[in-house]
Amino acid sequence: MISQTAAHARRSVAEEFTARRRAGYNYRVLAALEEFGPASQAELGRRCRMDRSDVVVAVTELEGPGFVERSADPADRQRNTVTITRAGTQQLRRLDHVLDTVQDELLAPLCRPPSSRPWSRCPGSA
Hints:
alpha+beta, three-stranded antiparallel sheet
């Protein structure tokens, strides 16, 4: 049952992100940049558990609308440093809201009054 719920949650998130033309990889990159600050593309790949080629695609997609900036690393000209922009932080907030909505919908059945739950040993039940 937990596996089915997790699969349903993944599908719901993917559908919502797709509807907004934003892949889950883009969310991962924005969230990592906000949490840890500027990073090389290789570092983003490690933090987000993404293949380097997927990082390049995500960063390119995010760079187009101005959600991230990519610049040469002053210490190593062959390496790019990626930084989240103000617009990227705003986009991350919008995507956070999408995740919150999906989570609320997924967990709504657990928030019913105890008398309407199909099980008896639920937190808050007598």
